[in-house]
Amino acid sequence: MDALTLLHERNSMGKLMAPAPSDAQMEAIYQAALRAPDHAELTPWRFIEFTGSGLERLGELFAEAERNTLPAGDEAAQAAASKKPLRAPMVVAVIAKVTPDHPKVPRVEQVVSAGCAAHAMLFAAQAQGLGGMWRTGGYAFDPTVHAGLGMSEQDELVGFLYLGTPGGRLKPLPSRESADFVERWQ
Ligand SMILES: Cc1cc2nc3c(=O)[nH]c(=O)nc-3n(C[C@H](O)[C@H](O)[C@H](O)COP(=O)(O)O)c2cc1C
């Protein structure tokens, strides 16, 4: 697939099955992430890859977040939370490792850079025939989850990328007119 077709036809896939991406496929995905635009070469990126029992550990962290929420989530909510990461054979947490008070690169630029990395990862997954879906949900913003993932207070969890083998049909893509979004000063 040529580059423009990939850019124009990226399509999230929520139904994901085993097998998980191979090590070689993940290396290609991380290399794509590591080419994200990056002001002042801060490389403000951290990735945590969850598979197997790692997915269960992430689920336990979500359940703990539910317990720590006020009012504390009931047992059903905790059980549902613990199952969330099991929707794919692999989840990658994409974290913006923010350098605070940088003289040239404000926080927002560093978080956007991590977002670009996540986006590149979805393209690299699709280019290899894999499926991917970017999810956040409340757990991406939860202090219990942040602490459990070893994030500093400055860091931002930009998303959980659910990755795997496509398990369903790709949805039809929306047709959008660039004229609805673009203005030209000439
Ligand atoms: C930062 C971010 C967080 C998202 N979080 C969720 C989420 O928690 N749950 C969800 O169903 N979709 C979420 N989405 C949207 C999906 O990843 C996806 O973009 C959407 O289903 C549209 O599909 P498409 O990417 O193929 O256009 C999120 C997207 C972004 C950029």
TrEMBL record:
CDD domains: YdjA-like (cd02135). Residues 12-164 form the Nitroreductase domain. It is an enzyme of class 1 (oxidoreductase). Its cofactor is FMN. Its EC number is 1.-.-.-. The keyword Amino-acid biosynthesis does not apply. PANTHER family: NAD(P)H NITROREDUCTASE YDJA-RELATED (PTHR43821:SF1). This is Putative NAD(P)H nitroreductase. It comes from Cobetia marina.
